[in-house]
Structure formats: C-alpha cells, structure tokens
Amino acid sequence: MEALDTSVSPPARVAEMDEGISIDELRLAARNHGMPLEALRYDVTPVGLHYVLTHYDIPYVDVETWHLEIGGEVERPLTLGLDDVRSRERVTRRVTLECAGNGRATLTPRPVSQPWVDEAVGTAEWTGTPLAPLLREAGLHPSAVDVAFTGADHGVERGVEQTYQRGLPLAEAMRDDVLLVYGMNGQPLPPQHGAPLRLLVPGWYGMAQVKWLADVRVLDAPFDGYQNSTAYRLKQDPDEPGEPVTRIRPKALLQPPGFPDFQTRTRIVERGTHLLTGRAWSGWGQATRVDVSVDGGRTWHEARLGPPPDQFEWRSWQWSWDAHMQGQVDLCVRASDAEGNVQPVEQMWNRQGVANNHVQRVTVVVR
Q1: How many CA atoms lie within 13 A of 81 on its CB side?
Q2: pTM
Q3: Were both Cys, which of 159, 168, 250, 303 would link to 319 (CB 3.0–4.6 Å)?
Q4: Given 2.60.40.650, 3.30.70.120, 1.10.760.10, 3.40.190.10, which CATH number is that of 251-366?
C-alpha cells in the first residue's frame, strides 16, 4: 500500500457538534443504499432492496478470463476458473448481512463516513461452495495462522492507496458455513454484490464479506492490512489500536407502521389496535427475545417470536399495540440473543461509528 497526500483522502475525523452532513457524505449515500424498512416484510430480501456498500468502484471483471488464486502457506497452490468453482459441492444458505457502520449517522458526535441510519441490512439466499475443502486440497502448512482475501476493487482510503483486503483467523476461514458465493436468491451474483465470486462469512459484519474475490492467501502471521489494522476498530481516541470488529451484535428492527411524512419519515396511524412486526438477528447465535417499547425505552413488553430460522438468518417477531391515546409516540425495539447479549438503549460511542446496535426509534403520530 502506498501512502498519499492526506488531502486526497482526509484522515478519519469526528464532526463538530453543529456540523451537518457534508457533500462528500451525500455522495457516499447516493452511491450506496440501504434496505427500505418496509422490506422487512420479506423473509428473503429482493436483490434490488438488499443493502449495498461499495468502498471504491464496482470493478469490471471479465468472467471469461477471471480466476481465483489460492496460495501462500500451502503445499499445492490452486488456480480456479468460475466453472471450476461451480463444479464443486453446491450449498445454499440463508444469511443476514449487516454493515458494521449501520447506525453511525445517529451517533453524537457523528463520525464522518457513510451516513447509515438503520437500513444497512438484508437477508439473502447465497449459493456457492465451501471454502474449507479448497484450503484442505491446497494443503495447509503447519505454520498457517490467518487467511487474507483480496478483491478486485481498488482506491484510496484515508490517504492510503489500496486494493480491498480483509483477513480472517484460520479457524474462522475453516468453518463449514464459510462459502465462496456465485449466486444470490437463485440468480447469478449481480455486479454490485461481488460478481463473479464473493466471500460469505455468516455471523460477521459486512466488511468481512470480500466481494469481487480474486485471491485467497494463507499467512503464517496475523494479517495486518489496512482494513484489519486501521479500519473497523472499536476505539475512543485516534492513536489507540482499538479492538477489532468481528461478529454482528444483536439487533431488532420494526417495520414502521402506518404511512410516512415525505421528508421527516414520521409515521401516521389511526387510533386502534396495530400489529407491529419486524425482524431480529445476531452474529452470536439466534435472536431469542424481542421487546417493544411505546414510551421511548422506559418500559418494555415482550413480543412473540416466529419459528427459529437458520443460525445466522433474521427472525420474525410481532406484538399487538393498542394505540388508544392521540399524539406523538416513540416506538423502540430491542433484541437479545442466545449468548445473553442485549441491545443497549443508548450506544456506547466509538470513533469510527462501527458495531452500533443501539435501539431503533420510530416516531409515530396517533390521530
């Protein structure tokens, strides 16, 4: 990676308390898109509604000449074309993905980056082949520690020119459910989601799901590239190393009831009984409880959960709300998971605005 003048891509910073969203952030928001919350009604998110985050450009990849290299600390390096990958064991998994920066725009003060609110999430049926058998076929050296994954997308981030790379501990890469994916919702993987091949690491935030995959490199030391050592770190101060972001924290979302005001997105409902519905998920195991609040998080009511889904797939929930008082109501939902983790009402702030799972707040006017 080559360091460039920081004026090209300014260092990570935190917005001033009265600073609005910048033109640069609006450009990011226009390139990337979240899932409209009304799409929570779908068990499987339609491809065009699934969230998308692209760090640099969507690269052009010629499928006819594309190949995947598997090398590094292995006995027999492999070079595979797409037909070679597709000829291996075929697996389809329903997995929920969430961007690590989801919720960043609601933090105070706001870390300056892609300004996500609640919508950077989606669930798809991903089709591909398990990675572990290919690593075994290549013959792992006893010295193997990490696996680095390199995509085809290239750009500048915070003054550093780079090709997008992420590393995984070997034990994570060798999980049976980690896939090399070439299909989404029964169709070929679309360009914005990493065609012709991407990595799928169920349970981890989106930064680990390397798209436009070109190289898999087994390492004899922990991967220290930018996207692991500098980006996606939980820290309070710019000079501290911080803790790495890994698995998705538990989260629940409410499908907003009624109909919206065009600009504020405030919801309008009539007095009466309303069935509130939504989804909950966690990268630490299934969501095991969802609670709903109609007073901004002061008191909570347990919702009814849908059938247990696949381990890393979101779970449906519902709760009947008797909206008998006119006026403004602040609805909140929170999830708990199988490991005992519970969503916080207020987020513990971090400098990069990552791994946010504070509760969603939906303003509703009852009339």
Answers
A1: 5
A2: 0.95
A3: 303
A4: 2.60.40.650
Instruction: Please tell me the distance from the alpha carbon of residue 184 to that of residue 192, in angstroms, as a whole number.
Output: 11
Residue 317: phi and psi, rounded to 5, are -150, 160
* CATH 2.30.110.10 at 2-231, yes or no: no
Give the 3-state DSSP-derived string for 314-337, with helices as H, strands as E and coil as C: CEEEEEEEEECCCEEEEEEEEEEE
Q: Are strands 272-281 and 315-323 parallel, antiparallel or unpaired?
A: antiparallel
Do residues 80 and 68 make contact, with C-beta atoms less than 8 angstroms apart? yes
Cβ of 29: how many Cβ atoms within 10 Å? 16
Domain ranges of the chain: 2-231, 251-366
122/178 Cα distance (integer angstroms): 18
Q: pLDDT tens track of the chain, all 367 residues? A: 455 554 565 667 898 888 888 999 999 999 999 999 999 999 999 999 999 999 999 999 999 999 999 999 999 999 999 999 999 999 999 999 999 999 999 999 999 999 999 999 999 999 999 999 999 999 999 999 999 999 999 999 988 999 999 999 999 999 999 999 999 999 999 999 999 999 999 999 999 999 999 999 999 999 999 999 999 999 999 889 999 999 999 999 999 999 999 999 999 999 999 999 999 999 998 999 999 999 999 999 999 999 999 999 999 999 999 999 899 999 999 999 999 999 999 888 999 999 999 999 999 999 9
Taking Cα atoms as reference points, which of 39, 49, 213, 197 lies closest to residue 127? Answer: 197
